[in-house]
Amino acid sequence: MGLREARRDEVRQIVEMLIDDQLGKGRESLDDLTPYLKAFDAIAADQFNTQYVWDESGEIVGCLQLTVIPGLSQKGAWRAQIESVRVKGSTRGSGVGQKMMHAIMAIARERGCDQMQLTTNKVRTDAHRFYEALGFEKTHEGMKKKL
Amino acid sequence: MGLREARRDEVRQIVEMLIDDQLGKGRESLDDLTPYLKAFDAIAADQFNTQYVWDESGEIVGCLQLTVIPGLSQKGAWRAQIESVRVKGSTRGSGVGQKMMHAIMAIARERGCDQMQLTTNKVRTDAHRFYEALGFEKTHEGMKKKL
Q1: Residues A16-44: pLDDT tens digits?
Q2: Chain A neighbors of B15, CB-CB under 8 A
Q3: Which residue spans within chain B are E strands per DSSP?
Q4: Which of A67, A71, A145 sits opposite B39 (nearest CB)?
């Protein structure tokens, strides 16, 4: 029970959580898992990327991706970046999100990271409150561009 | 001339550009290059991280780090993230920044990335205008927390 590395046969359950989301429902699809599996394999093969799930007595109820980023700035400070943090709809409000975040912060510290960072869409006001309660600050603009 | 991978013996020049900055001047130091060299080695050894410099007839006048991030979200879309984008003080306003950005966007496309992302401190209003002119949008909050 708790945060652990995801297995390849859990990709469908992760995508189900990505779909069960105000923004995800319009941009994800279970019709073809191939691109998700390809991404999972790239994550699993890389030293600095890990796909995690929160396992509650054998049931997957949360997920997030950790990317560890070495960098020159701030005297060579390493950053822990998290992406695609989701909690299963039926489990929201139960504290799984907070437990997942505390677990990933501990992992990031063990990996030598000095700070954790994430971007969250400006429409996700609930998420902003969630992260602020955990000590995150909205110090930066998150800017994106399609290529 | 143009954007190319940085060499280890150019780390001092990169740190000089990181210091020559409204935020960097308070948090970087040339007293001991060891942590910067360690970070450079980690970047150079990794498949998904690259430290670039802009070489203008043998002179280093710009830098940025590219991190390619595989991810499950958005049907397994790969992201290109840039960090520590700097242009040498004496060269600012000459268009090097724009040329550097166009070059890195081309590299990111070649590497299969669907979008480019970055976070920039909310006090860097000049940087926001610079990125917006290149088509970036402030769609996200960039949230950070010290670990």
Answers
A1: 999 988 888 888 999 999 999 999 999 99
A2: 72
A3: 2-5, 49-56, 59-69, 79-87, 115-121, 137-146
A4: A71
